[in-house]
Structure formats: C-alpha cells, structure tokens
Amino acid sequence: MAFPLTVNNLTVAYQKKPVLEDISFRVPEGKLIGIIGPNGAGKSTLIKAILELIPSITGDVAIFGESYKKTRKRVGYVPQRESVDWDFPTDALDVVMMGRYGHLGWFKRPDKKDKAHAMECLDQVGMSQYAHRQISQLSGGQQQRVFLARALAQDAEIYFMDEPFVGVDAATEKAIIALLMKLKSQGKTVLVVHHDLNTVKEYFDWIMLLNVKLIGIGPTEKLFTKDYLQKTYGGSLTMLDSNTSPIIVSPR
Amino acid sequence: MNWFSLFLDPNTQWILMGSMLLGLSSGVIGSFAYLRKQSLMGDALSHAALPGVCLAYMLTGTKSIFFFLIGAIIAGILATAAIGYITRNSRIKQDSALGIILTVFFGVGIVLLTQIQHSNSGNQSGLDKFLFGHAASMVKLDVYTIAGISAVLVVLCFLFFKEFKLLSFDPGFAKGIGLPTILLDQFMMLLIVTAVVIGIQAVGVVLMAALLITPAVAARYWTEKLHVMVILAGLFGAFSGFVGTVVSSMVNNLPTGPLIVLSATVLFIISVLAAPNRGVLAKTRLRVSAKSEYQPLTNQRVKEKSL
Ligand SMILES: Nc1ncnc2c1ncn2[C@@H]1O[C@H](COP(=O)(O)OP(=O)(O)OP(=O)(O)O)[C@@H](O)[C@H]1O
Ligand SMILES: [Mg+2]
C-alpha cells in the first residue's frame, strides 16, 4: 500500500532565498494532521507546492505513490478564504458544485446527482439553509464553511486545508473538527494548517512542525512539547508550563 | 430621414444586424473580462490592436478581417508580454504598466494611420474610421464576417462556460483540479482580441473596450447568477449596437462607436439607479423600510420602561 503523501527533498523559493528548504516526510493513511508554524513559515507554500500551484526548485511529491497529475481526483483542497473575491455572481450551492468539476471533465455540466451531492455537503457543514444565498452576503465563517463543503464535494481521499478555522466561531469549529474526525475514521487523510496552539492536542493525532525547514513530524504526544515548539517558533514564544500542556502566553 | 423607411432598407437591416451581433458577443466576453478584473486589459488590448491592424493593411494592402486579426493578435501578444516584463522587472505596478503600453502602442498606431492616409491608397481605405467606428461603411461581406465570428465567440463562451466560471472565481482551485489555467487565460485573451478586431469597423479601437465592459457592469447590477449576467450583458450589448447604429444613420455623419457606447452608458446609468437589490433606489428603499420596521420595537421598549 503506497503512502497517501510522500515528499522528498522539496525546496521552494519565490525569490533567491528559499521559503521551504529540503523538506522530506511521509504521511500514513487515516491521520488528522496539524501543520503548525509561525507566520511566513511556509505552510501555505508547502500546500501550494504539493498541489503544483507554484513551481518547486527541487524535490518530488507523490500522492498515493503517483504524481499529482494522475491523482488529482483523489485530492481535496480548501484554500485560504481571502484567495477569492466573494462579490462574484453566484450562490453557495454553486460554489460547492465547483468541487464536482474535476470529476466532470470538459464541457459537461453538473446534473441533478451532482446538485444533490453538493446539497448534502452543504448540509454536513450546517449551511443547507444558505444554499441559495449570494456568497457576498455570507459571513466570513459561513464563507469558510462553503469552501469546506466544496472540498467535501470533491470526494477526495486526502485533503489539504489552509486555515479552515479562521473567523469561525467556537461551536462551528467543534462541528468542523467532528466532521474531519469522521473523514479520518473513513480512512481519509486530512492535513490542516492550524494556528491555535491551545487546541492542537485536542484536535490532531499527528502534527507537523514547520519553519522553513521541517522541525518534526509525528504523533502529537511526542512532538507537542516545549522543546519542539521553541525550536519552531524560535525565541518569539513564551510559555508557561502548566503541568503537561504548554500554554502560549505571547506568540508574537 | 423617416424612421420606417430606415428599417425597410435591406442594407440598413444588414448593418443593424452586424452591430447587434457585435454588441452581443462583446457583452458576453466582456462579462468574463470584467469578473476577472481585466477591464483595463481589454482597454490595453483594443488600443494595442491599432498598430497591428495598420501594419497588416500596409503589408497586405487589403482590408481583410483575417489579416487584421493576425496583426491585432501579434500586437496583443507583444503588448501583454511587455506589460508582464515591466511588472516583473521593475517596481512599476500592473495598472501603470498597462497605461504605459496602451499609450505607446496607440501612439504608434496613430503614426501608422496618418502614414496610410497620406499615401495614395489611404484615401479610399476607410481606415480613418477605425478610431471611432463607422457602421455605415460596412458592406455585406463585412457583416457576414462579423456575424459569423460573433456567433463563434458566443458558442465558445457557452461551451467553456463552466471552465470560464471557475477560472474567473477561483483560478487557484481551477489549477488544482487540473484545468490548464494559463492556456485558458490566453484563450480568453484571444477571444477579447477577436471581439476587438470585429468591432473595429463599427465601434473603433478607442471605444471597443467600453463596449466590452459597460454592458457587463450594467448586467451585474440586475442579477446574482452568472449565466443570467452573461445573457443580460449580451442583450445590453446588442441593444446598444442597435440604438447606436440607428441614431448614427439618422443623424448625418455621426460616428457609430460613440453612439453605441453612449447607449450602453445610458443602460448602465439606468441599472445603477433602478436595479433591484443592488441599485441605488432599491438600497435606499431597503434602508428606509428597515428603519421603519425597527422603530416600533424601540418605541415599545420606551413605553415598557415608562410603565
Ligand atoms: N507570492 C509570493 N511572492 C514572494 N514571496 C512570497 C509569496 N508568497 C509567500 N511569500 C513568502 O514566502 C514565505 C512563506 O509564506 P507562506 O504564505 O507559505 O507562509 P504561511 O506559513 O502560510 O504564513 P501564514 O501563517 O501567515 O499564513 C513568507 O516569507 C512570504 O513572505
Ligand atoms: Mg498561510
């Protein structure tokens, strides 16, 4: 059985200085993985490089043992919400339907089945009553949920999510996490860029610590320690050691 | 001239049909250009078309839409490449780069145009009409060509609707699911340049960008659905083409282009004012009614307190 994701010696640079340096790791099946690191660590860049949205200088990526070109249909992607202009003439259901486009191929229009499927995905993120709402009239958190529903509609086996919890209220965040855990229990692999260190232990069974270089990847209980976090965030992190879990005081 | 006799004249009927189809295809393609925030790019492409068209005329000596298209495409490629080069290799932002390239190409175009007019063949060429358009100078063959190409443009937008939609809304996601975004992007540019070239005779290069964008902006006010917007923009464009051509053939010697664009602008103003939900009037009405609905609530609270 091939690993869902294998990355070898990946280096990416926008200008001269690399923003990701020699990243190599493997991700096993059925894990919910948090990608953690400070602003500018290269988390979004890592996802974009894996999905070939930006070119990488060296290295190769295999998804289920094959190149991304061959495995596109098994990959789902939730971009950062600010990456699109929400004042676009379309409604929530239509955006979710875009998740089906990759399965449709050229010229074919989504049919009733795709529509029903999209509706189901909206329902899973608790947004079915907003299906026909114009997308600019949704709140930030609701827009985020629409993007999540679109990724669900992709029917993928491995998901990449870039900060899906930004602007989402606590109750919704819990609901989304429950949804991601469900995906995990179905044997799917989910990688999530996450900023709130206080919930890391609760949410993820694996974490990946990133700051230009890969600091570490593995089970949360092994890696979510003061040492590793200090290494990832450098001196910018002050922590109080309350019993076992590190509490972040001023991540600047 | 009498209104009625105008419509009975077969020649005028042809010309009307040509400008309407031109407006239709421009509105449809312009919708995507507008949503992709490439309005300025449309302007640059249409101005850049002028030197290409002039050179094509100078080299071939014929007024053929096919050669014009080749000239305009080459000029368009050069212009976009130059804009890309400037934004990548200097601190000049894209809008400024567009401005620079637009004026340079247009300047060269004017020089070439003057050159052509001073030469012998230039007098009959009718190329002087390329700046502001003159629909009446279209002959039957021109109308056939314009109609045929417009139809192809509209059909292409219909076929690629799903792809164009995704590319306009979320190019990153489009690339992620494997759409050849760079190719599609260039394909869209090609459609825009083609619309500009077939519009040269009736509307002229100066105002062609307005016929691409204005109907789309006006249509955006009326709907929250992309396909409705695209169809509306096409209808608005066709209507503008119709009105502009009729007025210009009634009033002697007025160039068609400005009249077509003025009609589109009138539609735009009506849309801004009267459109449901997005229009100024509807928004004002909504604000007023929200206020008056809120009032009784606050009054009640005051009453309860006083009790
Ligand atoms: N388009 C770009 N051109 C040049 N540099 C870029 C570009 N995008 C990102 N960078 C740089 O690459 C580095 C990594 O950026 P990236 O967006 O991957 O960070 P991130 O870990 O996602 O940060 P955040 O937590 O703020 O989202 C940053 O130093 C950033 O300045
Ligand atoms: Mg990021």
UniProtKB/TrEMBL annotation, chain A:
Q: Does the keyword Transport apply?
A: yes
Q: Name one GO molecular function term.
A: ATP hydrolysis activity
Q: Does the keyword Transport apply?
A: yes
**What InterPro entries does the record point to?**
AAA+_ATPase, ABC_transporter-like_ATP-bd, ABC_transporter-like_CS, Metal_Ion_Import_ABC, P-loop_NTPase
**TM ranges:** none
CDD domains reported in the protein's UniProt record: ABC_Metallic_Cations
Domain named ABC transporter: residues: 5-237
Record Gene3D superfamilies: P-loop containing nucleotide triphosphate hydrolases
Lineage top rank: taxon: Bacteria
Q: Which UniProt keywords apply?
A: ATP-binding, Nucleotide-binding, Transport
Q: Which Pfam families match?
A: ABC_tran
Q: Which PROSITE patterns match?
A: ABC_TRANSPORTER_1 (PS00211), ABC_TRANSPORTER_2 (PS50893)
Q: Which family does it belong to?
A: Belongs to the ABC transporter superfamily.
- In Swiss-Prot or TrEMBL terms, this protein is called MntB
From TrEMBL, chain B:
Q: Which spans are transmembrane here?
A: 12-35, 65-86, 98-116, 143-161, 198-218, 230-251, 257-275
Chief site of localization: membrane
Q: Where in the cell is it found?
A: Cell membrane
InterPro entries registered for this protein in UniProt: ABC_BtuC-like, ABC_TroCD
Keywords (A to Z) from UniProt: Cell membrane, Membrane, Transmembrane, Transmembrane helix, Transport
Q: Does this entry carry the keyword Lipoprotein? A: no
List the GO cellular component terms: ATP-binding cassette (ABC) transporter complex
Membrane topology note:
Multi-pass membrane protein
UniProt GO BP: cellular response to iron ion; response to zinc ion; transmembrane transport
Q: According to the UniProt entry, where is the signal peptide?
A: none
Is Hydrolase one of the keywords UniProt gives this record? no
Give the top-rank taxon of the lineage listed in the UniProt record for this protein. Bacteria
What family classification does the UniProt entry report for this protein?
Answer: Belongs to the ABC-3 integral membrane protein family.
Q: What does this protein do?
A: This protein is probably a component of a manganese permease, a binding protein-dependent, ATP-driven transport system.
Know the name of this protein? Manganese transport system membrane protein MntC
Originating organism: Neobacillus vireti LMG 21834
